[in-house]
């Protein structure tokens, strides 16, 4: 019996030695197995956060009962649901460009209205102290032309590439622009700024009538109907104007007609011309200055200007020099911004902006110059401006 036990013990020791030789890491494997045996009771608790859970083989049968814990779905590529995530993705380039464009247009509009208001205020101050509208108009064009020539010479702005054909097509536009500019300045020298702009809000009526009877164009019925409040409002404002002046009234009417022809010539002559809005208006100012200067000398003349300037200095003082410089600079700037905005917006948006600009000028001039306004006069102005807005909507 003892021999049998010894043989068995020897056999066990030999098998253990053989096993150790075959597996040098026997100790590690045995410790690993021991760890696994210790983790067996916890195996059913091991899980990964959604969407994947692991269960022990022994608990596989209870998986059906826990099916509501996880919802796994697969979708086709064209029917896939968006992945929910707390991470905010950056906006698309298209969204950023559209937002930047809106901001740019808003800046153009705000600058355009502000510059126009400032110009009208200083222009009226100059004309009250120095009532020579032909020279005042010439100085505003000369200032703008000088500013652009300096910008081109110093390469602050890129000079336009023009030829003889360009200036030929620009000439009728410059003639109409010169007449409209001088007529508006003459009007503001005789009547209030608010009255001039109320009459100038009737420009759409001139545009439709000229296009219909001279160019043979036809318009939808709503366009013709929108002219009724424009004409009626302007007539009501003119009849009830306390400081009515026929020269001032006719100057505003002539300005409307001239600017209509300017727009017609500009559309017909500048098709296909690759000149930016800023440079286009600069060229227009230079050519208008060349046209206006001899007429200003013939109508008023240096002797009248010298006498009027001495009177203005004695009554107002050196401050009148700043007024003249301000009205000249701001006239060019507001027109330049308006032409630059035409490159960025549609004609409908420009028409609406022009209507709002006129409202801001009328209201600000009434407040600053304390212009007396009757309720009926204000009603006529509101009707005319509202008709202008309806026209801009119906025209499109």
Key structural traits:
single chain; 396 residues; mainly alpha; 0% strand; globular; transport; membrane
Protein described:
This protein has helices at residues 2-22, 26-39, 93-129, 133-153, 164-190, 193-200, 203-213, 221-239, 246-269, 277-299, 302-315, 319-342, 347-369, 375-395. The chain has 396 residues and is mainly alpha-helical. The protein has one domain. Helix 7 (203-213) packs across helix 9 (246-269). The longest helix has 37 residues, at 93-129. 32% of the residues are buried. The model is unreliable at 1-83 (pLDDT under 50). Keywords: Chloroplast, Membrane, Plastid, Transit peptide, Transmembrane, Transmembrane helix, Transport.
> What's the count of strands?
0
List segments where confidence is low: pLDDT < 50 over at least 5 consecutive residues. Answer: 1-83
Mean pLDDT score, rounded?
78
H/E order of the elements? HHHHHHHHHHHHHH
The profile of the biggest β sheet is:
none
Secondary structural class: mainly alpha
H/I helix tally: 14
N-C termini distance: 119 Å
Report helical residue fraction. Answer: over 70%
Question: Summarize this, please?
Answer:
The protein is an all-alpha fold. The protein contains 14 helices and no strands.
Chart the SSEs and their pairings.
Layout: H1 2-22, H2 26-39, H3 93-129, H4 133-153, H5 164-190, H6 193-200, H7 203-213, H8 221-239, H9 246-269, H10 277-299, H11 302-315, H12 319-342, H13 347-369, H14 375-395
Helix pairs in contact: 3-12, 3-13, 4-5, 4-10, 4-12, 5-9, 5-10, 6-9, 6-13, 7-9, 8-14, 10-12, 13-14
